[in-house]
Amino acid sequence: MSNSLFRKKSISDLIAATQGEKALKKELGSFDLTMLGIGAIIGTGIFVLTGTGAVTAGPGLVLSFVIAGLACLFAALSYAEFASTVPVSGSVYTFTYASMGEFLAFIIGWDLILEYMLAASAVSAGWSGYFVSFLNGVGIHIPVELTAAPGGLKGQVTYFNLPAFIILMIITFLLYFGIKESKRVNNIMVILKIAVILLFILVAVKYVKPENWTPFVPFGTSGVLSAAALVFFAFIGFDAVASAAEETKNPSRNLPRGIITSLLICTVLYVVVSAIMTGIVPFMNFDGVSHPVSLVLQVAGQNWVAGIVDIGAILGMTTVMLVMLYGQTRVMFAMSRDGLVPKVLSKVHPKHKTPYINTLFFGTLSALMGGFIPLDELASLVNIGTLSAFILISVAVIVMRKTQPDLPRAFKCPAVPLIPILAILSCGLLIYKLGAITFVRFFIWLAIGLVVYFLYSRKHSELNEK
Protein backbone atom coordinates (compact mmCIF):
# COMPACT_ATOMS: atom_id res chain seq x y z
CA MET A 1 0.00 0.00 0.00
CA SER A 2 2.80 2.43 0.87
CA ASN A 3 4.25 2.00 -2.61
CA SER A 4 0.92 2.90 -4.22
CA LEU A 5 0.58 6.00 -2.04
CA PHE A 6 3.89 7.38 -3.29
CA ARG A 7 3.81 6.23 -6.91
CA LYS A 8 4.98 9.03 -9.19
CA LYS A 9 4.19 10.20 -12.69
CA SER A 10 7.23 10.61 -14.88
CA ILE A 11 7.86 14.00 -16.48
CA SER A 12 7.63 12.40 -19.93
CA ASP A 13 4.20 10.92 -19.08
CA LEU A 14 2.97 14.26 -17.75
CA ILE A 15 4.02 16.07 -20.91
CA ALA A 16 2.64 13.31 -23.15
CA ALA A 17 -0.77 13.75 -21.47
CA THR A 18 -0.95 17.28 -22.89
CA GLN A 19 -1.22 15.92 -26.44
CA GLY A 20 -4.25 14.59 -28.27
CA GLU A 21 -7.95 15.18 -27.65
CA LYS A 22 -7.40 16.59 -24.17
CA ALA A 23 -4.91 19.21 -25.30
CA LEU A 24 -5.51 22.85 -24.39
CA LYS A 25 -4.84 25.70 -26.82
CA LYS A 26 -1.50 27.55 -26.42
CA GLU A 27 -2.38 31.24 -26.38
CA LEU A 28 -0.34 32.98 -23.66
CA GLY A 29 2.92 34.94 -23.93
CA SER A 30 5.02 36.55 -21.18
CA PHE A 31 2.97 39.78 -21.27
CA ASP A 32 -0.28 37.81 -20.91
CA LEU A 33 1.16 35.84 -17.98
CA THR A 34 2.36 39.02 -16.27
CA MET A 35 -1.13 40.50 -16.69
CA LEU A 36 -2.61 37.25 -15.36
CA GLY A 37 -0.41 37.50 -12.26
CA ILE A 38 -1.21 41.18 -11.66
CA GLY A 39 -4.87 40.40 -12.30
CA ALA A 40 -4.76 37.83 -9.50
CA ILE A 41 -2.77 39.88 -6.99
CA ILE A 42 -4.05 43.47 -7.30
CA GLY A 43 -7.62 43.51 -6.01
CA THR A 44 -9.02 42.90 -2.56
CA GLY A 45 -5.61 43.40 -0.97
CA ILE A 46 -5.05 46.95 -2.13
CA PHE A 47 -8.66 48.15 -1.96
CA VAL A 48 -9.84 46.42 1.25
CA LEU A 49 -7.12 44.69 3.29
CA THR A 50 -4.84 47.74 3.46
CA GLY A 51 -7.26 49.25 5.98
CA THR A 52 -7.48 46.12 8.15
CA GLY A 53 -3.72 45.63 7.95
CA ALA A 54 -3.08 49.24 9.02
CA VAL A 55 -5.15 48.71 12.18
CA THR A 56 -3.10 45.59 12.97
CA ALA A 57 0.41 46.89 12.18
CA GLY A 58 0.14 50.70 11.97
CA PRO A 59 2.45 52.37 9.44
CA GLY A 60 4.58 49.23 9.75
CA LEU A 61 2.11 47.70 7.29
CA VAL A 62 4.69 48.45 4.59
CA LEU A 63 6.99 45.95 6.33
CA SER A 64 4.13 43.43 6.45
CA PHE A 65 3.75 43.66 2.68
CA VAL A 66 7.52 43.30 2.21
CA ILE A 67 7.56 40.17 4.43
CA ALA A 68 4.56 38.61 2.65
CA GLY A 69 6.09 39.55 -0.72
CA LEU A 70 9.44 37.97 0.17
CA ALA A 71 7.74 34.76 1.29
CA CYS A 72 5.98 34.69 -2.08
CA LEU A 73 9.17 35.54 -3.99
CA PHE A 74 11.09 32.64 -2.42
CA ALA A 75 8.23 30.30 -3.38
CA ALA A 76 7.89 31.96 -6.82
CA LEU A 77 11.44 30.99 -7.75
CA SER A 78 10.54 27.35 -7.02
CA TYR A 79 7.34 27.71 -9.04
CA ALA A 80 9.30 29.17 -11.94
CA GLU A 81 11.71 26.22 -12.00
CA PHE A 82 8.94 23.63 -12.04
CA ALA A 83 6.57 25.45 -14.38
CA SER A 84 9.28 25.96 -17.02
CA THR A 85 10.50 22.36 -16.70
CA VAL A 86 7.08 20.66 -16.54
CA PRO A 87 4.73 22.86 -18.64
CA VAL A 88 1.56 21.02 -17.64
CA SER A 89 -1.72 22.23 -16.11
CA GLY A 90 -2.18 21.73 -12.38
CA SER A 91 0.46 23.97 -10.80
CA VAL A 92 1.91 22.58 -7.57
CA TYR A 93 -0.37 19.51 -7.77
CA THR A 94 1.38 18.36 -10.96
CA PHE A 95 4.84 19.20 -9.65
CA THR A 96 4.21 17.22 -6.45
CA TYR A 97 2.98 14.23 -8.45
CA ALA A 98 6.29 14.16 -10.31
CA SER A 99 8.49 14.63 -7.25
CA MET A 100 6.81 13.19 -4.14
CA GLY A 101 4.08 10.89 -5.32
CA GLU A 102 0.35 10.54 -5.74
CA PHE A 103 -0.88 10.82 -2.15
CA LEU A 104 0.80 14.15 -1.42
CA ALA A 105 -0.19 15.38 -4.90
CA PHE A 106 -3.84 14.64 -4.16
CA ILE A 107 -3.65 16.36 -0.78
CA ILE A 108 -2.18 19.52 -2.28
CA GLY A 109 -4.69 19.40 -5.16
CA TRP A 110 -7.49 19.12 -2.61
CA ASP A 111 -5.90 22.03 -0.78
CA LEU A 112 -5.85 24.13 -3.99
CA ILE A 113 -9.56 23.44 -4.58
CA LEU A 114 -10.21 25.10 -1.21
CA GLU A 115 -7.89 28.02 -1.98
CA TYR A 116 -9.27 28.96 -5.38
CA MET A 117 -12.95 28.27 -4.80
CA LEU A 118 -13.21 30.11 -1.48
CA ALA A 119 -11.03 32.95 -2.74
CA ALA A 120 -13.30 33.53 -5.75
CA SER A 121 -16.40 33.43 -3.55
CA ALA A 122 -14.90 35.69 -0.88
CA VAL A 123 -13.74 38.28 -3.43
CA SER A 124 -17.19 38.25 -5.04
CA ALA A 125 -18.66 39.46 -1.74
CA GLY A 126 -16.19 42.37 -1.63
CA TRP A 127 -16.88 43.12 -5.30
CA SER A 128 -20.60 43.22 -4.55
CA GLY A 129 -20.09 45.85 -1.82
CA TYR A 130 -18.17 48.16 -4.16
CA PHE A 131 -20.60 47.56 -7.03
CA VAL A 132 -23.68 48.31 -4.91
CA SER A 133 -21.95 51.45 -3.60
CA PHE A 134 -21.19 52.53 -7.18
CA LEU A 135 -24.80 51.92 -8.29
CA ASN A 136 -26.12 53.89 -5.32
CA GLY A 137 -23.87 56.76 -6.36
CA VAL A 138 -25.50 56.91 -9.79
CA GLY A 139 -29.04 56.58 -8.41
CA ILE A 140 -29.63 52.86 -8.97
CA HIS A 141 -30.71 50.90 -5.88
CA ILE A 142 -30.84 47.11 -5.50
CA PRO A 143 -33.13 45.83 -2.69
CA VAL A 144 -30.95 45.41 0.38
CA GLU A 145 -32.27 41.84 0.79
CA LEU A 146 -30.43 40.91 -2.43
CA THR A 147 -27.08 42.60 -1.65
CA ALA A 148 -25.63 40.13 0.87
CA ALA A 149 -25.76 36.50 1.96
CA PRO A 150 -28.06 35.59 4.87
CA GLY A 151 -26.60 37.25 7.97
CA GLY A 152 -24.07 39.13 5.87
CA LEU A 153 -25.19 42.62 6.94
CA LYS A 154 -25.54 43.40 10.63
CA GLY A 155 -28.99 44.68 11.57
CA GLN A 156 -30.38 43.92 8.08
CA VAL A 157 -32.48 41.04 6.74
CA THR A 158 -30.69 39.61 3.69
CA TYR A 159 -31.43 36.52 1.60
CA PHE A 160 -29.02 36.36 -1.32
CA ASN A 161 -26.02 38.26 -2.69
CA LEU A 162 -27.30 38.72 -6.25
CA PRO A 163 -24.42 40.88 -7.60
CA ALA A 164 -21.83 38.36 -6.32
CA PHE A 165 -23.70 35.49 -7.99
CA ILE A 166 -24.12 37.32 -11.31
CA ILE A 167 -20.47 38.44 -11.65
CA LEU A 168 -19.16 34.92 -10.99
CA MET A 169 -21.55 33.44 -13.55
CA ILE A 170 -20.44 36.03 -16.15
CA ILE A 171 -16.79 35.11 -15.49
CA THR A 172 -17.67 31.40 -15.68
CA PHE A 173 -19.11 31.80 -19.18
CA LEU A 174 -16.15 33.93 -20.24
CA LEU A 175 -13.80 31.10 -19.23
CA TYR A 176 -16.10 28.59 -20.94
CA PHE A 177 -15.65 30.34 -24.29
CA GLY A 178 -11.84 30.20 -24.20
CA ILE A 179 -8.52 31.41 -22.82
CA LYS A 180 -8.01 33.78 -25.77
CA GLU A 181 -11.18 35.73 -24.96
CA SER A 182 -10.45 35.58 -21.23
CA LYS A 183 -6.91 36.92 -21.59
CA ARG A 184 -8.10 39.88 -23.69
CA VAL A 185 -10.66 40.90 -21.08
CA ASN A 186 -8.14 40.38 -18.26
CA ASN A 187 -5.40 42.41 -19.99
CA ILE A 188 -7.72 45.38 -20.59
CA MET A 189 -9.02 45.40 -17.00
CA VAL A 190 -5.52 45.04 -15.51
CA ILE A 191 -4.20 48.00 -17.52
CA LEU A 192 -7.18 50.12 -16.39
CA LYS A 193 -6.83 49.24 -12.71
CA ILE A 194 -3.08 49.93 -12.72
CA ALA A 195 -3.91 53.34 -14.22
CA VAL A 196 -6.37 53.94 -11.36
CA ILE A 197 -3.76 53.00 -8.74
CA LEU A 198 -1.15 55.28 -10.35
CA LEU A 199 -3.74 58.08 -10.39
CA PHE A 200 -4.33 57.55 -6.66
CA ILE A 201 -0.57 57.69 -5.98
CA LEU A 202 -0.08 60.88 -8.02
CA VAL A 203 -3.07 62.66 -6.44
CA ALA A 204 -2.58 61.52 -2.83
CA VAL A 205 1.21 61.61 -2.33
CA LYS A 206 1.36 65.39 -1.78
CA TYR A 207 -1.04 65.11 1.20
CA VAL A 208 1.22 62.78 3.20
CA LYS A 209 2.09 63.98 6.70
CA PRO A 210 5.25 62.19 7.92
CA GLU A 211 4.18 62.65 11.57
CA ASN A 212 1.42 60.08 10.93
CA TRP A 213 4.18 57.49 10.52
CA THR A 214 5.17 57.90 14.17
CA PRO A 215 5.23 55.48 15.90
CA PHE A 216 6.08 53.40 12.86
CA VAL A 217 5.57 50.01 14.54
CA PRO A 218 3.06 50.72 17.35
CA PHE A 219 2.34 47.04 18.04
CA GLY A 220 5.88 45.75 17.66
CA THR A 221 7.10 42.82 15.61
CA SER A 222 4.05 40.76 16.55
CA GLY A 223 1.73 43.31 14.93
CA VAL A 224 3.81 43.41 11.75
CA LEU A 225 3.86 39.61 11.46
CA SER A 226 0.14 39.27 12.23
CA ALA A 227 -0.61 41.83 9.52
CA ALA A 228 1.72 39.96 7.14
CA ALA A 229 -0.28 36.76 7.73
CA LEU A 230 -3.48 38.71 7.03
CA VAL A 231 -2.36 40.63 3.93
CA PHE A 232 -0.84 37.47 2.51
CA PHE A 233 -4.39 37.01 1.13
CA ALA A 234 -3.49 39.90 -1.17
CA PHE A 235 -0.78 37.81 -2.85
CA ILE A 236 -2.71 34.60 -3.45
CA GLY A 237 -3.24 33.81 -7.06
CA PHE A 238 0.21 34.45 -8.52
CA ASP A 239 0.59 30.68 -8.28
CA ALA A 240 -2.36 30.43 -10.70
CA VAL A 241 0.08 31.66 -13.37
CA ALA A 242 1.78 28.28 -13.04
CA SER A 243 -1.58 26.65 -13.80
CA ALA A 244 -1.39 28.28 -17.22
CA ALA A 245 1.77 26.35 -18.15
CA GLU A 246 0.01 24.07 -20.62
CA GLU A 247 -1.55 27.02 -22.46
CA THR A 248 1.68 29.03 -22.68
CA LYS A 249 3.75 29.62 -25.79
CA ASN A 250 7.45 28.97 -25.07
CA PRO A 251 6.82 28.13 -21.37
CA SER A 252 10.52 27.70 -20.52
CA ARG A 253 11.06 31.43 -21.12
CA ASN A 254 7.65 33.03 -20.58
CA LEU A 255 6.53 31.35 -17.33
CA PRO A 256 9.44 32.49 -15.12
CA ARG A 257 9.13 36.01 -16.54
CA GLY A 258 5.40 36.16 -15.92
CA ILE A 259 5.53 34.77 -12.38
CA ILE A 260 8.43 36.88 -11.07
CA THR A 261 7.63 40.14 -12.91
CA SER A 262 3.99 40.23 -11.76
CA LEU A 263 4.99 39.54 -8.16
CA LEU A 264 7.64 42.28 -8.08
CA ILE A 265 5.34 44.91 -9.67
CA CYS A 266 2.53 44.15 -7.23
CA THR A 267 4.76 44.20 -4.14
CA VAL A 268 6.08 47.66 -5.09
CA LEU A 269 2.53 48.96 -5.62
CA TYR A 270 1.35 47.55 -2.27
CA VAL A 271 4.25 49.12 -0.37
CA VAL A 272 3.83 52.54 -1.99
CA VAL A 273 0.03 52.64 -1.56
CA SER A 274 0.11 51.49 2.09
CA ALA A 275 2.83 54.07 2.90
CA ILE A 276 0.74 56.88 1.37
CA MET A 277 -2.46 55.74 3.10
CA THR A 278 -0.96 55.61 6.59
CA GLY A 279 0.82 58.90 5.89
CA ILE A 280 -2.48 60.70 5.19
CA VAL A 281 -4.86 59.00 7.65
CA PRO A 282 -3.76 57.98 11.19
CA PHE A 283 -3.81 54.18 11.20
CA MET A 284 -6.41 53.85 13.99
CA ASN A 285 -8.97 55.66 11.82
CA PHE A 286 -9.12 52.68 9.44
CA ASP A 287 -10.87 50.53 12.08
CA GLY A 288 -14.10 49.14 10.59
CA VAL A 289 -13.59 50.92 7.24
CA SER A 290 -14.41 48.73 4.22
CA HIS A 291 -13.37 51.36 1.63
CA PRO A 292 -9.97 52.52 2.99
CA VAL A 293 -8.73 54.05 -0.29
CA SER A 294 -11.88 56.14 -0.60
CA LEU A 295 -11.46 57.32 3.00
CA VAL A 296 -7.92 58.51 2.25
CA LEU A 297 -9.14 60.53 -0.72
CA GLN A 298 -11.95 62.09 1.33
CA VAL A 299 -9.48 63.15 4.04
CA ALA A 300 -7.24 64.59 1.31
CA GLY A 301 -10.23 66.51 -0.06
CA GLN A 302 -10.04 64.73 -3.42
CA ASN A 303 -13.55 63.28 -3.61
CA TRP A 304 -13.54 63.52 -7.40
CA VAL A 305 -11.06 60.63 -7.52
CA ALA A 306 -13.11 58.44 -5.16
CA GLY A 307 -15.59 57.40 -7.87
CA ILE A 308 -12.74 56.50 -10.19
CA VAL A 309 -11.16 54.42 -7.40
CA ASP A 310 -14.46 52.58 -6.91
CA ILE A 311 -14.36 51.66 -10.62
CA GLY A 312 -10.74 50.54 -10.18
CA ALA A 313 -11.75 48.37 -7.22
CA ILE A 314 -14.54 46.77 -9.25
CA LEU A 315 -12.13 46.03 -12.12
CA GLY A 316 -9.44 44.84 -9.72
CA MET A 317 -11.67 42.34 -7.97
CA THR A 318 -13.13 41.14 -11.28
CA THR A 319 -9.71 40.07 -12.55
CA VAL A 320 -8.94 38.36 -9.21
CA MET A 321 -12.09 36.27 -9.52
CA LEU A 322 -11.30 35.47 -13.15
CA VAL A 323 -7.81 34.18 -12.31
CA MET A 324 -9.03 32.28 -9.22
CA LEU A 325 -11.69 30.44 -11.22
CA TYR A 326 -9.19 29.84 -14.02
CA GLY A 327 -6.71 28.27 -11.59
CA GLN A 328 -9.49 26.20 -10.01
CA THR A 329 -10.59 24.69 -13.30
CA ARG A 330 -7.03 23.90 -14.45
CA VAL A 331 -6.11 22.10 -11.22
CA MET A 332 -9.30 20.02 -11.43
CA PHE A 333 -8.62 19.38 -15.13
CA ALA A 334 -5.20 17.94 -14.27
CA MET A 335 -6.55 15.83 -11.38
CA SER A 336 -9.35 14.51 -13.58
CA ARG A 337 -6.96 13.62 -16.41
CA ASP A 338 -4.95 11.62 -13.85
CA GLY A 339 -8.09 9.82 -12.68
CA LEU A 340 -8.11 11.22 -9.13
CA VAL A 341 -11.49 12.92 -9.65
CA PRO A 342 -14.22 11.95 -12.17
CA LYS A 343 -13.06 11.89 -15.80
CA VAL A 344 -15.92 14.09 -16.96
CA LEU A 345 -14.10 17.08 -15.44
CA SER A 346 -11.31 16.79 -18.02
CA LYS A 347 -13.55 16.73 -21.11
CA VAL A 348 -12.36 19.43 -23.53
CA HIS A 349 -14.81 21.40 -25.66
CA PRO A 350 -14.17 20.50 -29.33
CA LYS A 351 -14.42 24.13 -30.48
CA HIS A 352 -13.31 26.31 -27.54
CA LYS A 353 -10.61 23.90 -26.28
CA THR A 354 -11.56 24.50 -22.63
CA PRO A 355 -12.52 22.03 -19.88
CA TYR A 356 -16.12 23.19 -20.23
CA ILE A 357 -18.03 20.86 -17.86
CA ASN A 358 -15.43 21.47 -15.16
CA THR A 359 -15.68 25.25 -15.72
CA LEU A 360 -19.48 25.33 -15.57
CA PHE A 361 -19.64 23.12 -12.47
CA PHE A 362 -17.09 24.95 -10.31
CA GLY A 363 -18.09 28.37 -11.59
CA THR A 364 -21.72 27.77 -10.61
CA LEU A 365 -20.69 26.30 -7.26
CA SER A 366 -18.50 29.32 -6.47
CA ALA A 367 -21.31 31.67 -7.54
CA LEU A 368 -23.80 29.94 -5.23
CA MET A 369 -21.32 30.11 -2.34
CA GLY A 370 -20.80 33.82 -3.02
CA GLY A 371 -24.58 34.31 -3.03
CA PHE A 372 -25.55 32.30 0.04
CA ILE A 373 -22.53 32.16 2.40
CA PRO A 374 -21.03 35.16 4.22
CA LEU A 375 -17.30 34.54 3.82
CA ASP A 376 -15.83 37.36 5.91
CA GLU A 377 -14.01 34.90 8.20
CA LEU A 378 -12.57 32.66 5.49
CA ALA A 379 -9.62 34.76 4.27
CA SER A 380 -7.41 33.05 6.86
CA LEU A 381 -8.58 29.61 5.67
CA VAL A 382 -7.62 30.51 2.11
CA ASN A 383 -4.25 31.73 3.41
CA ILE A 384 -3.36 28.50 5.19
CA GLY A 385 -4.15 26.53 2.03
CA THR A 386 -1.94 28.75 -0.09
CA LEU A 387 0.93 28.79 2.41
CA SER A 388 0.82 24.98 2.60
CA ALA A 389 1.10 24.81 -1.19
CA PHE A 390 4.09 27.19 -1.15
CA ILE A 391 5.85 25.04 1.45
CA LEU A 392 5.27 21.88 -0.55
CA ILE A 393 6.52 23.34 -3.84
CA SER A 394 9.71 24.43 -2.05
CA VAL A 395 10.22 20.93 -0.65
CA ALA A 396 9.55 19.49 -4.11
CA VAL A 397 12.35 21.56 -5.70
CA ILE A 398 14.85 20.24 -3.15
CA VAL A 399 13.65 16.65 -3.68
CA MET A 400 13.82 16.91 -7.49
CA ARG A 401 17.34 18.37 -7.37
CA LYS A 402 18.40 15.29 -5.38
CA THR A 403 16.44 12.60 -7.21
CA GLN A 404 16.70 13.95 -10.80
CA PRO A 405 19.81 16.16 -10.88
CA ASP A 406 20.29 15.71 -14.65
CA LEU A 407 16.75 16.73 -15.62
CA PRO A 408 16.93 19.59 -18.19
CA ARG A 409 15.78 22.76 -16.41
CA ALA A 410 15.00 25.83 -18.52
CA PHE A 411 14.99 28.00 -15.38
CA LYS A 412 16.81 27.14 -12.17
CA CYS A 413 15.83 28.43 -8.76
CA PRO A 414 19.03 30.07 -7.45
CA ALA A 415 20.84 29.02 -4.25
CA VAL A 416 19.10 25.67 -3.73
CA PRO A 417 18.47 24.56 -0.99
CA LEU A 418 18.81 28.01 0.69
CA ILE A 419 16.01 29.80 -1.21
CA PRO A 420 13.48 26.94 -0.82
CA ILE A 421 14.36 26.65 2.88
CA LEU A 422 13.77 30.41 3.31
CA ALA A 423 10.39 29.94 1.61
CA ILE A 424 9.53 27.07 3.97
CA LEU A 425 10.54 29.04 7.07
CA SER A 426 8.82 32.30 6.09
CA CYS A 427 5.59 30.57 5.04
CA GLY A 428 5.69 28.44 8.20
CA LEU A 429 6.01 31.60 10.32
CA LEU A 430 2.97 33.15 8.61
CA ILE A 431 0.96 29.95 9.17
CA TYR A 432 1.89 30.09 12.86
CA LYS A 433 0.42 33.60 13.09
CA LEU A 434 -3.00 32.39 11.88
CA GLY A 435 -5.64 31.61 14.51
CA ALA A 436 -6.37 28.18 16.02
CA ILE A 437 -9.86 28.02 14.47
CA THR A 438 -8.20 28.25 11.05
CA PHE A 439 -6.27 25.04 11.75
CA VAL A 440 -9.44 23.25 12.88
CA ARG A 441 -11.31 24.16 9.69
CA PHE A 442 -8.30 23.29 7.53
CA PHE A 443 -7.90 19.83 9.07
CA ILE A 444 -11.63 19.14 8.68
CA TRP A 445 -11.28 19.89 4.95
CA LEU A 446 -8.20 17.63 4.72
CA ALA A 447 -10.08 14.83 6.55
CA ILE A 448 -12.83 15.00 3.92
CA GLY A 449 -10.12 14.82 1.25
CA LEU A 450 -8.62 11.68 2.81
CA VAL A 451 -12.02 9.98 2.62
CA VAL A 452 -12.34 10.93 -1.07
CA TYR A 453 -8.83 9.69 -1.84
CA PHE A 454 -9.12 6.28 -0.19
CA LEU A 455 -12.68 5.59 -1.34
CA TYR A 456 -12.36 6.85 -4.92
CA SER A 457 -9.11 8.40 -6.13
CA ARG A 458 -6.60 5.64 -5.31
CA LYS A 459 -8.72 3.04 -7.10
CA HIS A 460 -9.43 5.15 -10.21
CA SER A 461 -5.95 6.63 -10.59
CA GLU A 462 -4.43 6.30 -14.06
CA LEU A 463 -1.31 4.84 -12.47
CA ASN A 464 -3.39 2.24 -10.61
CA GLU A 465 -5.09 1.17 -13.83
CA LYS A 466 -1.72 0.83 -15.55
From TrEMBL:
Domain of life: Bacteria
Keywords, sorted A to Z: Membrane, Transmembrane, Transmembrane helix, Transport
Compartment(s) where it occurs, according to its Swiss-Prot or TrEMBL record: Membrane
A single cellular component GO annotation: membrane
InterPro entries associated with the record: AA/rel_permease1 (IPR002293), AA_transporter (IPR004758)
Transmembrane regions: 33-55, 61-82, 103-127, 159-178, 190-208, 220-242, 263-284, 304-327, 356-375, 381-399, 411-432, 438-456
Pfam families assigned to the protein according to its UniProt record, in alphabetical order: AA_permease_2
Major subcellular site: membrane
Membrane topology, from the record: Multi-pass membrane protein
Keyword Transmembrane helix in record: yes
GO molecular function annotation: amino acid transmembrane transporter activity
NCBIfam families: 2A0306 (TIGR00909)
Protein's UniProt name: Amino acid permease
Organism, scientific name: Bacillus zhangzhouensis
